[in-house]
Amino acid sequence: MLRTRSLTSLIVALTATTSAFADGTWTNIVTAGLVGGSYPPANLNIPGVPADAVFVPNSFNNPLIAPNGNVVFRAQLAGTGIQATNPNNSHIELTGSSGATLVQVARAGNALPSGLAPGLVCNSTTGVNGLASTQFESGNGGVLITGNLNGTGVTAATSPFWMWRDPTGANNYILYRGGDAYPGAAGVTMTASVGSPQYVNNDGAALAYATLAGTGVITTAGVTANNGAVVWMGPSGKTVLFRKGDPCPGFTDGTVLQPDSYSIWVNGNKAAIYGTLFGGTVTTSDNAVELTNAWGNGLEVWGRKGGPIAGFPDLTFTNMAYPTSSPFSLVQHPLMADGTIVFRTELGGTGATTLNNSATMTVKNGVFTMLMRKGDTVPGVSGLVFQSVGSSSVMNNNGVYAYEGILMYADGTSVTDPAVPSSFLGVRKADGTILVLAKQFDSIPGVAGATFGPISGSSSVCISDSGVVVFANNFIVGGIPYSGVAILAWDAVNGLRTIAKTGDTNFTGTPCNTLTMIGGTGVSGASTNTGLNSSGQLVLKAGDSVNSMYTIAKIDLGVAPCPADLNGDRVVNGADLAVLLGAWGPCTCPSDITGDGVVNGADLAVLLGAWGNCP
């Protein structure tokens, strides 16, 4: 969470400062709080919502934005007949492109749409709110919500549900109910967390870890434990990807795999999972693996703790400081449409020293590429070198990687001098070029007298497939840390600019003091950000806690589409031609410009016709 300080003089100064750059107009979707002496109505002809209903201030959760610009969010209502206690009917899930187009996805205390759960209402068994605080989105605009149901015969174990609303809004499906039968064995049932299906693909299928109980289930820790599974749950049914305790792919010595319950990633029908090995000749030095089914060979191991890194004969995977049990840390939505996986790792072997023993890498079809390595020089930064990637980093489906970079001295010591920048926000283009967009202490464009605070851990960086990078950062004015927050955007056409900041009055009519966007942690099952859609439309929350005013707003930062620009540098040239020729043949990937499932002469013709600078 970004911190802000309430400084009247500072806010006045920032409010008077206008950005030197121009993007699309901010559009408010909904507002909560007193506007002109009254609360704006929440009911804009939404069936089932009382006419006098209003939104409770500061009740909006992090909104998502679909490819068509529709925004999805949860809010709380107040008014006649609405109550927030048992039985709760105040929480509501809504979607639409504006206040005038909002439609109800689900509401606490009400039946689910389409008669999905006859006789039951969306509430927990204690009668309190049945809608989970987060929702998920598919790459084509479908919505997955989770929550609990209540009614005759429902228990705490059978109460949880996941519901998918398809992109048309006409069809709804229950993907999971607590206690559903496990499809891999008779007499076994499943329990999954209400908040666990973070990714849902365009077919409405979510991949999640389920705990198993029933016939033949062994819960005792060790080689024989089989009380969990990674399962696809979709409108057409459930399919097991892998069950805990089954033989690990590629091993013939009795080694079994126990998949982790949280390191699960999805892009379409591709998946990546992490697991621990037991049995065979496994020891604690080689008992962790990463697997994927993205390369057409079924589920396969692509990296093993203590194992070699293909193409780097003097390097091995070794333990990271966190998590202590794994040498792998996959970045936010790490699985790309073409099967590329982005990850961080600690390096061992004869080629690693304390000055270069970590890296951010990609792997595709077993081929590893090093994106950045500890000790690398950073363009435009003198006297310091790259140390590591911060907690926020993300790649788009065109191979452009946006990340927080941490700096160190060349001798490996950390930056402790408060006058020396210790962090930056960088972009690595698909051709390997590194661009530094902002460093700690740099001036912030469009915000008079403001400089960047530390750029690590709070940037919420995200990137669209059209090449727009958006991030948030605390800034400093007059030496006062956390003076405010700036939301910045960058693309190769328009450069870096501030699009929102603490003190702006355009959101609520009063100076805002909070700005929150979901960033790279909000992703769909198509490896796209859900707070910034593929074309560059951004959604965020803005608030003025002093006057209790809050809004959800969106803006179009879209750069003109340039499908033939395969490396995302806004120029179609030989580099893009090389990418296209390298993907020749059947391929569901960006190089398939025509979208017919194969990279061939038709795609080549489009690329040659677009040769030169993108519009």
Q: How far apart lie the N and C ends?
A: 37 Å
**Number of helices in the DSSP assignment:** 3
CATH H-tier superfamily of one domain: Dockerin domain
Shape: globular
How many strands? 41
Uncertain spans: 1-22
Helical content stands at under 10%
Mean pLDDT: 89
Report Rg: 25 Å
Sheet with the most strands, sense and barrel status: 6 strands, antiparallel
At the fold tier of CATH, the topology name of one domain is: Type 1 dockerin domain
Derived from helix and strand composition plus strand pairing, the structural class reads mainly beta
CATH architecture verdict of one domain: Orthogonal Bundle
Features of this protein?
single chain, 615 residues, mainly beta, Type 1 dockerin domain, six-stranded antiparallel beta sheet, five-stranded antiparallel beta sheet, 3 helices, 41 strands, 4% helix, disordered N terminus
Task: Please explain how this structure is put together.
This protein is mainly β and 615 residues long. The chain has a domain at 560-615: Type 1 dockerin domain (Orthogonal Bundle), CATH 1.10.1330. The protein is 4% helix and 40% strand. Strands 20, 21, 22, 23, 24 and 25 form a six-stranded antiparallel β-sheet that branches. Helix 2 runs antiparallel to helix 3. The chain is globular and about 70 Å long. The model is unreliable at 1-22 (pLDDT under 50).
